[in-house]
Amino acid sequence: MDIITINVSAKETIDLQCVRCGNSRRISTALLQADANTYKVQCKCGFNYYVAFDRRRFPRRKTELKGVYFLENSLKDEIIDIIDLSKTGLCFIAKSNIDIKIGQIIALNFILDNPERDNVECKATIRQINDCKVGVEFLNLSSSVQRVLAFYLFNYVEK
Fold it and tell me: For every residue of the chain, which 3-state class applies, written as one string?
C-alpha cells in the first residue's frame, strides 16, 4: 500500500490528485480530524489511494546520517543514526540503551551528506522517546548553523 504524504500546516485547502487518472479535488484542511493521520480516498474513477497528512510546521527530510550525542555534564557520547531532519529538529535512533528523558538537554554533533560535508554542532531538547527512536528540538542554533541547515534542506528535500 503506497501512501502519499502531504504537508498541511498553515494551509486552508489542499488539492488531492488521483495517481491513476489525474482527476483532482480540493478539500478544506478544517475538515481533517486532528487525531487522524492517514485517510483512504476514493476517486471518481473508482481507484482507491491513501493519503497521510503531515501537520509539521516544517518539512522533514529522510536521512541516513551518523552522529553522536552526549548529555550535559557527561563525558560519555553515544553513536546515533539520524533518520530525519528539519529546520527545527531531528529524529534519531540510538545504537545503545537510551539513558535520557523528555525535557533533557543534549549536545549533538553530525556531518551532513552534502558535497561540503558540513559539520553541525548544536544543543537540543528531547521532545519524544519511542523505544530507541528519539525526537529532538534544536535550541538556540547559531546563524551559521541555521544557514547550513536551510541550504541543505532547500536543496536536498525530496520533491
Answer: CCEEEEECCCCCEEEEECCCCCCEEEEEHHHCCCCCCEEEEECCCCCEEEEEEECCCCCCEEEEEEEEEEECCCCCCEEEEEEEECCCEEEEEECCCCCCCCCCEEEEEEECCCCCCCEEEEEEEEEEEECCEEEEEEECCCHHHHHHHHHHHHHHCCC
The pTM of the full predicted model, rounded to 2 decimals, is 0.67
Co-location of 8 and 28 in the same domain = yes
Per-residue model confidence as pLDDT tens digits over 70-122? 987 777 889 999 999 999 999 999 877 777 889 999 999 999 999 999 999 99
- CATH of residue 82's domain is 2.40.10.220
- pLDDT score at 28: 86
Residues 82 and 146 in one domain: yes
